[in-house]
Amino acid sequence: MKHLQLLMLATMVAGATYGQVTPYQAKEIKPYTGRDLSTEQKKPATVQQKVTSPASLQFFIRKWKTGVTDAFYEVTTAGVRTLVVQANARTKPLYINSNGTYYWEAYGEQKSGQWVATGKTDYPIMLKNAIENKNWYVGQHNNGKNAIYIWDHNAISYTGVPL
């Protein structure tokens, strides 16, 4: 029985060797050649920024109830430490005044200073040297709600609603 299997295998191999099998012909690989940038004029990319009008800044001029999104902190009461988890933990209000000043309390700091128009549509106001001595950017909520985002251009953000 084993001899029969070997004979069948040999017949199949011999038939494949002498049959009409066409070998694969590889195609030449052509290397990619990019364009020569050294001959082109070097110009900075055009940045289009829509300048915000003073009338559109009126939306921001008011007292805002602010909060940190997803805050975690510890409270010690009668010697017992408790982890408090709050979605949008409330902080003190942010006052954005029409005379170009602001007042804000957060992280236990009280800051007042100047705000400036950035000329950008996404965050048209910058609070100069605010909480944590950072510049914070204020923009309208992206869903068109009567709310704002306050962002440090890094990882921390606050939300605000009119008070």
Q: Please give the order of strands in the largest beta sheet.
A: 1-5-6-7-8-9-10-11
| N→C terminal distance | 93 Å
| Average pLDDT rating | 77
Low-confidence stretches: 43-51
Overall geometry comes to: elongated
Q: Into which percent range does the helicity of residues fall? A: 10-25%
The fraction of residues in strands falls at 35-45%
**Number of distinct helices:** 2
Oligomer: single chain
Cα-atom radius of gyration: 34 Å
Overall number of strands = 11
Helices and strands: which structural class? mainly beta
Q: What is the H/E order?
A: HHEEEEEEEEEEE
Largest β-sheet summary: 8 strands, antiparallel, barrel
Strand and helix layout:
Elements: H1 2-18, H2 54-57, E1 62-68, E2 71-77, E3 80-86, E4 89-90, E5 94-96, E6 101-106, E7 109-117, E8 125-127, E9 136-140, E10 148-151, E11 157-162
Antiparallel strand pairs: 1-4, 1-5, 1-11, 2-3, 5-6, 6-7, 7-8, 8-9, 9-10, 10-11
Can you walk through the features of this model?
- The radius of gyration is 34 Å and the shape is elongated.
- The N and C termini lie far apart (93 Å).
- The protein is 13% helix and 36% strand.
- 15% of the residues are buried.
- It has an eight-stranded antiparallel beta barrel with strand order 1-5-6-7-8-9-10-11. Strands 2-3 form a two-stranded antiparallel ribbon.
- Strand 10 and strand 11 (157-162) form a beta hairpin.
- By secondary structure, it is mainly beta.
- The chain has helices at 2-18, 54-57, and strands at residues 62-68, 71-77, 80-86, 89-90, 94-96, 101-106, 109-117, 125-127, 136-140, 148-151, 157-162.
- The longest helix has 17 residues, at 2-18.
- It has two helices and eleven strands.
